[in-house]
Design a protein that fits this description.
The protein is elongated, with a radius of gyration of 34 Å. The chain has a 6-stranded parallel β-sheet with strand order 2-1-3-4-6-5, with helices on both faces. It has a 6-stranded parallel β-sheet with strand order 13-12-14-15-17-16, with helices on both faces. With 1056 residues, it is of the alpha/beta class. The protein has 5 domains: 204 residues, Thiamin diphosphate (ThDP)-binding fold, Pyr/PP domains (Rossmann fold); 218 residues, Growth Hormone, Chain: A, CATH 1.20.1250.20; 190 residues, MFS general substrate transporter like domains (Growth Hormone, Chain: A); 187 residues, 3-Layer(aba) Sandwich (Rossmann fold); 137 residues, 3-Layer(aba) Sandwich (Rossmann fold), CATH 3.40.50.1220. The chain is 53% helix and 8% strand. Strand 1, helix 25 and strand 2 form a beta-alpha-beta unit. Pfam families: MFS_1 (PF07690), TPP_enzyme_C (PF02775), TPP_enzyme_M (PF00205), TPP_enzyme_N (PF02776). It is a multi-pass membrane protein. Belongs to the TPP enzyme family.
């Protein structure tokens, strides 16, 4: 009878599991194989392309619009010397009206565009940052298309109306490049910015295409069709741009959650959509900004010289027929386009693969973008009338100038990604003046005679501008993110203009601000290592310290229990890669964190605990809450210390943070005695050289990698096990490529879930027992052979199992069972090198035949109601165990649970950390905290913390009225009425159907009591609409519900 019941149960479980997997597939967004950011880069390219078609169109069409154009002109000087009478000019056919416009009117028409362009370049970045680059580009290009079309009929009214139309078109073009810089800042991961900025080279293609295209159409059909073609291109472009583009990854409808996370995490919080007024005063008083401005000015001087005056020099002085040598005329622009794209990819390669510093890349490639073009331009003066070397030098000059994508076009992203649009608008406004200055200066040189000798001065000046501006940047340029990159909205600016309350500036806290402010400054400088979050409960002697941390622009979250504070801090460290800080009082305050410290140390998560302590001169005489805190904390930490003086605080803080992140992550403790915190020193005596050191990457031994590849190639039933070490290392790209390329089957440990999606066909979690027993080779990626993996031993594993172990910690290698191949390395480089050795091989997958051990119906229906990209926090006995199988994860670092130490009470703290992480990095994501009723009791009062900080967390309490199992209501009532309840109430029993949701009424909020599945689905949807605080859903289930009995019961033998 029992066997039949279990058999029926297993069939039902398998059906539900299959249904869950179908739900996962149906809920996935449409995701292109090509990343969305690739299409965004394409839109950047075509935006600049379409922008330049409008700019160039008028210069071509005006030739056919003016009466008498195409008539005979003077013979070029160099052709006169050769005795030729050919001007190379032809008479255009008489299509369309012609206008009697003199040189002055023509110059007014052509110049009107540039006046508009320059005027709106300055506020263009501000406009883009407030409206968003998406609507800025759509709006300006739509108006530009309309005015370009109106320009066809404007000359018939008056040439002044055409000037007005061109002026408006120029105005619309002004914000384009600042808006694109803003778009790039929001979409480009730091390691791909070179490619994104290279997309700005679309303007070169616009020039190359528009000259022959519009020229040919004008010649065949009339000048008005030149405007029609450009307008049609704009309309088509707008439709595609509107469909593909969005202001940021968070706003895009088709982007995958994986890509969205990758972009957000790679930018590490340096880019935000918050609206703010650019800090113009700080920008204009910044030497790095002026170094960039000079560099950009020199670049535009050379480009405008080549675009506006060099064609005239070739045609009217040298006698080079540009129109009939179309390919050669376009070759400088084409080479600049292709080499610019190549330079962008090369810069990304050097930065990402070779670790070349950004500073070196920017300054080295100034040689190509400015110095060499200057040398080539000066070289033209030695070529006389020989057109071949002149054209070669011009091609070389334009080609190597494509390196500008790594210099003046990229540097705004370095200095202030939040204000890249505004910065580019400013440098374009000032640099755009060269559009007027260069023709005027050139005219001064050739005023009396436009011959070879007169043009020598033009080229010498142009070359010197290139070289001089490049050298200025090499000396004074910077690539570090500036302090003024941080955004503050108008209200915050106003608040910042007035002094904070005076008590924040007590002498006690002044030095602390200095000591801790460096962490924020380092973050703003682009290292993304700065402390962002502090959790704790304040009291003597750390009150002023907590205020100083907030003054340093660090988030402080006051918790209700030091233990929960430590759980929250380590979770934020796991999610961001930067340790969270716990601030506690002395004595008992520190002791309450020890459970969290041990959990962080065993889970390998970075966290720093800072504790106040008794004054040093009170030691040994019964000081307040006196205890030997440094020694007490040492067994649970990688580093435990007390600064001997105020001046040593920065050194110890830097070391503590470095230790928590280096090698195997873990915990650190710093002890601050009250007399140190109350001390006073001159601010200038605090050393500021202790900036955070980047964590070094550990690369694998090549011989060990070769051996691992050999073992895998000989395997008959290989299996990959993905641990949370791979998740922490953010190695999902490499691991997914390994699985997808080789077809290897995989299993994930609880918090390794999502590195490769649970819904992948190569995931064999339902056949976990069979897979572990039959595998002959296991590739262990950031996982440990501890109790979670049954120590890697028989009978759960094959007695002849061969283990390939990759771990960042050498001490972990060969633990429990001796590894066949042990590799000390970071996960990313090791997996990448193994993949390189396996690329030509594909493995047969182990069959997927088993089903989950057991489940509650509530998990199946809960999962159907949850957003796919939510972060799931889970703890409890059966609640967590069953949830690991029933609540799938397709994204890495999206599951937090009791972990290796099996700690109960972590849930609310983890959920608070996850909600803060989502608020600042992924505002469209939700946090779901699935709690067993027993586990919820450990830290349930942290709900008040969630309310206070308006954290939208959905808490689902799976209430079986007990630990593991509870009592039926009738039995519970009978026990309660039987007399001495302490002798008859089962130890695992809790109060039946406790109304946990009523906690919310304490804070004026609503909770939900659920007994049925329809109720559950309804209230989950309602809870997901709450954005200003937590929601508690109390789900009553069968008190005797339990897991299906396990084959290997060593961990559950004692369960009731």
């Amino acid at each position: 009878m029992q066997n039949n019941r279990e058999s029926t149960e297993m069939v039902e479980v398998e059906d539900l599991l299959n249904k869950d997997r179908n739900v996962v597939q149906s809920r996935k967004n449409i995701q292109c194989k090509v990343p969305i950011r690739f299409w965004i880069a394409c839109m950047v390219f075509f935006t600049t392309y379409i922008n330049y078609t409008t700019r160039v169109n008028m210069s071509i069409s005006i030739v056919s619009m003016v009466a008498g154009s195409g008539g005979k002109k003077d013979i070029p000087e160099c052709l006169r010397e050769k005795g030729s009478n050919d001007t190379g000019n032809t008479t255009l056919p008489d299509y369309g009206p012609r206008y009697e416009w003199n040189e002055h009117i023509q110059s007014q028409i052509l110049g009107s565009y540039f006046w508009g362009y320059v005027i709106l370049s300055l506020p263009g970045g501000f406009i883009a940052e407030w409206l968003g680059p998406y609507w800025t580009i759509i709006g300006t290009e739509a108006i530009s298309a309309v005015m370009n079309f109106v320009s066809i009929y404007a000359p018939d009214i008056h040439w002044g109306f055409l000037v007005f139309c061109r002026f408006i078109v120029g105005l619309c073009a002004g914000p384009t490049y600042p808006a694109l810089q803003c778009l790039i800042a929001r979409w480009a991961p730091p390691a791909e910015k070179g490619k994104f900025v290279a997309a700005l080279m679309g303007n070169t293609l616009g020039t190359c295409v528009t000259w022959p295209l519009v020229g040919s159409i004008t010649k065949s059909y009339g000048w008005d069709w030149g405007f029609h073609v450009v307008t049609i291109q704009k309309v088509v472009f707008l439709a595609i741009f509107a469909f593909i583009t969005a202001d940021s990854p968070a706003d895009h409808k088709m982007i995958s959650e994986e890509e969205k996370d990758f972009i957000a995490e790679s930018q590490a919080g340096t880019v935000t959509k918050a609206k703010a007024v650019p800090p113009y005063l700080k920008i204009f008083t910044s030497l790095p900004f002026w170094a960039l401005q000079v560099l950009h000015f020199g670049n535009l001087w050379g480009l405008y010289l080549q675009i506006t005056n060099v064609p005239k020099y070739l045609s009217q002085v040298i006698g080079f027929d540009i129109k009939n040598a179309g390919f050669l005329a376009a070759l400088p622009h084409l080479t600049r386009l292709f080499l610019g794209t190549g330079f962008g990819s090369l810069g990304d390669y050097l930065k990402k693969k070779k670790g070349v510093p950004n500073k070196f890349i920017r300054k080295f490639f100034v040689l190509f973008s400015h110095i060499f073009p200057g040398v080539f331009m000066i070289g033209i003066i030695f070529c006389g009338c020989d057109s071949v070397p002149i054209v070669v030098l011009l091609i070389l000059s334009q080609a190597v100038n494509g390196a500008a994508v790594l210099t003046n076009l990229s540097n705004p992203q370095d200095l202030a990604p939040n204000f890249a649009g505004s910065i580019f608008g400013i440098i374009s406004f000032i640099g755009g003046m060269t559009g007027f200055i260069v023709p005027a200066v050139t005219g001064a040189f050739i005023y009396e005679n436009s011959g070879v000798e007169e043009y020598k001065g033009v080229f010498i000046l142009g070359g010197c501008m290139y070289i001089g501006c490049g050298l200025f940047f090499i000396i004074f340029g910077r690539t570090e993110t500036q302090k003024w990159n941080e955004k503050k909205d108008s209200q915050e600016e106003a608040a910042g203009a007035s002094q904070p309350p005076k008590y924040l500036y007590k002498s006690k806290s002044c030095y602390v601000k200095k000591c801790f402010l460096w962490s924020r400054e380092v973050k703003l400088s682009g290292f993304a290592n700065g402390i962002e979050y502090v959790f704790g409960i304040i009291g003597y002697p750390v009150i002023e310290l907590s205020m100083a941390l907030q003054m340093a622009d660090i988030h402080y979250i006051g918790m209700r229990n030091e233990q929960a504070a430590c759980y929250a801090a380590q979770a934020i460290g796991y999610l961001t890669g930067t340790p969270g800080v716990v601030l506690v009082v002395s004595g008992p305050g520190l002791l309450h964190t020890f459970g969290g410290l041990a959990n962080a140390q065993i889970n390998c998560w970075p966290v720093l605990v800072i504790g106040g302590s008794a004054p040093q001169d009170h030691e040994g005489i019964g000081g307040f809450q006196e205890c030997n805190q440094v020694d007490l904390a040492r067994p649970y930490c990688k580093y435990s210390a007390r600064p001997a003086s105020i001046s040593l605080i920065p050194m110890h803080v830097e070391k503590a943070i470095r230790v928590t992140k280096t090698g195997r992550p873990g915990a650190a403790y710093l002890d601050f005695p009250a007399n140190i915190l109350a001390g006073r020193v001159p601010i200038d005596t605090i050393p500021d050289q202790y900036g955070p050191t980047p964590v070094p990457v550990i690369y694998p031994n090549p011989a060990a990698i070769q051996e691992a590849v050999k073992v895998l190639l000989k395997a008959k039933r290989p299996l990959v096990i993905v641990g949370k070490g791979a998740a922490y290392a953010k190695a999902e790209k490499e691991v997914r490529e390994l699985i997808d390329t080789t077809n290897l089957p995989f299993l994930a440990t609880p918090m390794g879930k999502g590195v490769v999606p649970d819904t992948s066909p190569k995931c064999i979690a339902p056949a976990r027992s069979l897979a572990l027993q039959q595998a002959d080779v296991i590739l262990l990626l950031g996982a440990r052979l501890n109790w979670i993996l049954h120590f890697g031993r028989h009978p759960r594993f094959s007695p002849d199992i061969k283990v390939i172990q990759i771990d960042v910690c050498a001490e972990e290698l060969h633990n429990s069972v001796k590894s066949e191949v042990a590799i000390q390395s970071d996960i990313k480089p090791a997996v990448a090198q193994i993949l390189e050795g396996l690329k030509s091989n594909s493995f047969a997958m182990v069959a997927d035949v088993s089903t989950p051990l057991n489940y509650y119906t509530v998990f199946h229906n809960l999962y159907e109601s949850l957003p796919q990209n939510c972060i799931i926090v889970s703890e409890g006995a059966n609640t967590m165990d069953i949830g690991r199988s029933m609540l799938f994860n397709d994204l890495p670092r999206h599951r937090l649970d009791a972990g290796t130490f099996g700690t109960m009470g972590v849930g609310p703290g983890f959920a608070i950390a996850a909600a803060l992480y989502c608020r600042h990095y992924h505002p469209n994501k939700r946090v779901i905290c699935v709690e067993g009723d027993s586990a919820f009791g450990f830290s349930g009062m942290e709900v008040e913390t969630m309310v206070r900080y308006k954290l939208p967390i959905t808490i689902v309490v799976v209430n079986n009225s007990g630990i593991y199992t509870g009592m039926e209501p009738e039995v519970y009532k009978e026990i309660q009425e039987s007399g001495e309840v302490t002798k008859v109430t089962p130890p695992a029993c809790l109060t039946y159907a406790t109304r946990y949701e009523n906690m919310m009424s304490l804070f004026g909020r609503v909770g939900y009591f659920v007994k049925t599945i329809p109720e559950l689905k309804k209230v989950v949807q309602e809870a997901l609409q709450v954005n200003d605080g937590p929601t508690v859903i109390n789900v009553i289930i069968n008190p005797t519900a339990d897991r299906k009995p396990q084959t290997f019961r060593w961990l559950t033998e004692s369960k009731l």
